[in-house]
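step=encode ok
step=design start
structure_in=
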């Protein structure tokens, strides 16, 4: 019996897409089967790559290969750092977390590569819309039915929940903007209000500010909106935004007052607050990173930061988080993984920006990339498996749906 290789690859490709969609709705909610489905999608994609491997690599764009390599390198840096720097008696929770994140990233590089090797043969836009609605509705359920003050999905961290909602919502908005229907601006407006309301219920200041700004940027970049209608569209979007400010006035005022108080305390050399601790962590992280440019163990970082706090009491807030992370993606990588951690992270940023701007603007990839860069200034995103799953899956889908030129078959050259 003759096996049709193309047919087998097509079946594996479709199965992988289905697994990715299931993982995207389940993983952010902390449902364990979601993580397992993601791992299954990796095993299936690996089999798909190995079948007729020459064809696989010839039909993948150069920028997609670069992205896959950058994700792979960042994952390997995480794993190698643990093997090199973890002492025999090391018991910091950072080690198992970064090993897990490293493995997810390594798997993701092959998954991204495989799904870039074929053309999407069916419409998944409606499924993304449904998934996004489910995620946002769950936030309302947590807040209003379960009484959770700051909704957190399945992440146990409201900030990470906000970032997850933000990138899924940005992907969904980009899909809505591509709909060929006359009333899509109204659908986009309703969805924007819906998503921003969900983000507000997490009370995460960075996302509450950043998501509307990036959404407005998405509108400005949308080629389907004429310059004549752009100002009108922006005004229409600003009206409900002002309305939301009044609707969530008490929540926003509370978070604003907390921020103002944190800044006041920091000016008094008291960093024992949310914002003050972030400033202290950046300063202490840069200092200890500078002194250990090739990396160091988690225990040694804690020891050095505690010494800095002893010498400068204004850095006290940093000591609370030394056994977790330093709430800044670049600073945290520098402080613990050294220059290799920073370079591998920046490679992901640059490869994604390069890909999103090449061969026609891929707005969703561009906005998702800007999101992780901005959110990475106040948190460490690649410390949460739920966020890492969501980011990779949104990235893959944005690439599949992106407005790019057809693939080139290099065998024809």
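sequence_out=
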């Amino acid at each position: 019996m003759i096996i049709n290789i193309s047919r087998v690859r097509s079946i594996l490709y479709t199965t992988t897409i289905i697994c990715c969609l299931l993982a995207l709705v389940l993983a952010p909610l902390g449902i364990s089967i979601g993580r397992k489905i993601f791992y299954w999608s990796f095993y299936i994609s690996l089999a798909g790559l190995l079948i007729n491997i020459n064809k696989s690599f010839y039909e993948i764009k150069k920028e997609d290969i670069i992205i896959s390599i950058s994700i792979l390198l960042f994952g390997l840096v995480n794993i190698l750092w643990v093997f090199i720097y973890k002492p025999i008696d090391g018991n910091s929770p950072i080690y198992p977390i970064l090993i897990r994140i490293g493995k997810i990233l390594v798997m993701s590089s092959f998954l991204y590569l495989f799904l870039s090797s074929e053309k999407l043969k069916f419409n998944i836009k409606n499924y993304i819309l449904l998934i996004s609605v489910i995620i946002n509705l769950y936030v309302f359920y947590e807040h209003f039915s379960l009484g959770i003050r700051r909704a957190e999905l399945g992440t146990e961290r409201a900030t990470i929940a906000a970032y997850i909602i933000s990138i899924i919502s940005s992907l969904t908005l980009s899909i809505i903007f591509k709909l060929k229907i006359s009333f899509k601006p109204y659908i986009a407006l309703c969805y924007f209000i819906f998503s921003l309301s969900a983000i507000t219920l997490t009370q995460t200041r960075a996302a509450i500010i950043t998501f509307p700004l990036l959404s407005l940027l998405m509108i400005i970049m949308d080629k389907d909106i004429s310059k004549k209608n752009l100002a009108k569209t922006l005004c229409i979007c600003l009206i409900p935004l002002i309305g939301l400010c009044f609707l969530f006035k008490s929540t926003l005022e509370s978070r604003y007052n907390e921020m103002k108080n944190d800044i006041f305390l920091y000016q008094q050399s008291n960093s024992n607050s949310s914002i003050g601790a972030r400033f202290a962590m950046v300063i202490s992280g840069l200092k200890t990173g500078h002194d250990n440019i090739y990396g160091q163990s988690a225990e040694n970082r804690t020891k050095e930061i505690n010494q800095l706090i002893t010498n400068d009491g204004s850095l006290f807030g940093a000591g609370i988080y030394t056994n977790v992370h330093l709430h800044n993606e670049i600073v945290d990588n520098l402080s613990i993984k050294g220059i290799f951690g920073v370079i591998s992270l920046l490679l992901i940023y640059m490869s994604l920006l390069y890909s999103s701007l090449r061969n026609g603007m891929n707005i969703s990839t561009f906005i998702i990339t800007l999101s992780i860069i901005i959110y990475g200034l106040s948190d460490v995103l690649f410390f949460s498996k739920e966020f890492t799953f969501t980011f990779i899956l949104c990235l893959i889908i944005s690439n599949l749906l992106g407005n790019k030129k057809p693939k080139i078959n290099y065998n024809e050259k």
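step=design ok
step=annotate ok -> Residues 255-321 form one domain.
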